[in-house]
Amino acid sequence: MTEYKQVTEEDLAVLAGFVDRERLLFGDEINEEYSHDELASERVYPSLVARVTSTAEVSKLMAYANEHHIAVTPRGAGTGLVGAAVAVERGLMIDTTLMNHVLELDEENLTLTVEPGMLLMELRSYVEERGFYYPPDPGEKSATIGGNISTNAGGMTAVKYGVTRDYVRGLEVVLADGTVLQLGGKVVKNSSGYDLKDMIVGSEGTLAFVTKAILKLLPLPKKNVSLLVPFPTLEQAIGTVPLIIKSKAVPTAIEFMEREVILDAEEFLGRKFPDNQADAYLLLKFDGNTMEEIASYYDDTAQICLDQGAIDILIADTEERSAPVWKTRGAFLEAIKASTSMMDEVDVVVPRSRVNDFVEFVHQLRQDIGIRIKSFGHAGDGNLHVYILRDDLSDEKWRELMRLAMKRMYAKARELQGQVSGEHGIGLVKRPYLKESLPEASLVLMRGIKQVFDPNNILNPHKVCQM
To answer: What pLDDT sits at residue 1?
Structure first.
């Protein structure tokens, strides 16, 4: 077990020499929110929080922490769901939310350079106002772009556009010893040795500290249309997805949802969903530059859905019609959270053709072990979000049933040739399941990579592949 130095008032005095004291929170000055992320079940207060404003500050903090063997926890907006931003060894937490600026919009190279603390919703608004598009669309719009990069966030548009990694052209990072590195850049192609940039994306703050990102942009699609498609059963709904993909219709998003989650969202938002006649739905979006282009896609998709037993096809071709549907979909997580005392999540990804197998397994599992479980997800890319709800269970019973449910779900995902996480990462709480799902040789390589980047193991210890 690695021993870490705890931050003292003497350390605080030194660090205040290069970070303004009012941006350093020490001891009782630290707000409760810094003790956990959105998961909230794992709570540890850091000894010191530094609210940084520049790469130079991060570099000096990292160099000092490395020299004195102080654990460092990177943190953005704290919206993660796997405990990746929990300061397990207390130590120093570096908060990036003040590093929230656009540094450059390069219209010739179609790139945007930003600091890591910029919120996703602000980034998207900034580029869309100027006619550009940043496609990655994770459900939590108040997350920082640095957090998205650290988890390789996906979201609803991954089926057409891919995930965060596909839009990171370059990174500025600070290594554990304070060294500042530029990785990648504005070039479209790069075959110059190992791709260290891509290694940082998805590493959850364990390899290096992201201080700047160069992001790829696209021209903003001029039109979009959404289809809400009710089905008699979830099996029919999800079974239609491979046929839509095979038809080359190119939807921007394909979401599945069940009536019980829609009812939760209706209660949470205080307004009705446009339709609640069915037990299961597909929600699809198509985008393009003309309505004629989009219609060529969604007409074929609508016919496929009807052929597979869809009850109806509801077309939302204006912002007024589509916004309530997508706002309801975006509220699912908060609605489920509001319906229970505590929850934990499984973020598995399986081949698209096996989504229904997994969802049916979950339905049976909740009957078998007697605990409420709710699910929704990205039918177009096989990423499911399954929530295990505590309700009024005792601490002991909750831990027992939650662990049993997770163990069985991750085993089923492996059986279906899936993986532990599609987009939320491993962090602190999913490590045992990663260990079970990967061969030991893969874990040895991961730990070796961590050792090369961070020999003293100060960067976000106990996360991802480290036990």
So the answer is: 60
Are the C-beta atoms of residues 334 and 280 closer than 8 Å to each other?
A: no
| φ, ψ for residue 282, nearest 5 deg | -110, 140
The answer to whether residue 4 is domain-embedded is no
310-347 burial, b at 16+ Cβ within 10 Å, e below that, comes to: bbebbebbeeeebeebbebbbbbbebbbebbebbbbbb
Backbone angles phi, psi at 152, to 5 degrees: 50, 55
- Amino acid 444 reads V
Q: Within this chain, do residues 108 and 209 fall inside the same structural domain, yes or no? A: yes
Residues 205 and 262 in one domain: no
**Same domain (yes/no): 115, 203:** yes
Q: Are residues 70 and 41 in the same domain?
A: yes
Count CB-CB contacts under 10 A for residue 283.
25
Considering the domain architecture, whether residues 80 and 115 belong to the same structural domain is answered as no
Alpha carbons within 13 angstroms on the beta-carbon side of residue 326 total 25
Provide the CB-side half-sphere exposure for 311 (13 A, CA). 16
Neighbour-count burial of 19, counting CB atoms closer than 10 A to its CB (0-12 exposed, 13-18 middle, 19+ buried): buried
Which residues of the chain, if any, have pLDDT below 50?
Answer: none
Q: Parallel, antiparallel, or unpaired: how do β-strands 111-114 and 209-216 relate?
A: antiparallel
Number of structural domains, the chain?
4
The answer as to whether 127 is a domain residue is yes
311 part of a folded domain: yes
Q: Give the largest Cα separation in the chain, rounded.
A: 72
Domain of residue 390, residue span = 340-429
Instruction: Indicate which CATH number applies to the domain containing 230.
Output: 3.30.70.2190
Q: Please state, in angstroms and rounded to a whole number, the distance separating the CA atoms of residues 465 and 7.
A: 26
* Gap between the Cα atoms of 232 and 220, Å rounded: 36
Q: Is-above-0.85 flag for pTM?
A: yes
Distance (Å, rounded) from C-alpha 326 to C-alpha 312? 18
Q: Which two tokens stand for residue 446?
A: 């991961």
Q: Are residues 162 and 76 part of one domain?
A: no
Residues listed for the chain:
467
Q: Give the orientation angle of helix 355-369 with respect to helix 234-246, to 10 degrees.
A: 160
- Residue 304 forms part of a structural domain: yes
In a shared domain, residues 172 and 249? no
- Order of all β-strands in the sheet with 280-288: 314-316, 223-231, 280-288, 253-258, 373-378, 383-389, 343-346
Q: How many CB atoms lie within 10 A of CB 406?
A: 19
Amino acid at the residue 212 = K
Measuring CA to CA, how many Å separate 199 from each of 169, 205, 450?
13, 11, 11
Supply 7's token pair: 């931050």
Between β-strands 280-288 and 92-95, what pairing exists: parallel, antiparallel or unpaired?
unpaired
* 359 and 420, same domain (yes or no): yes
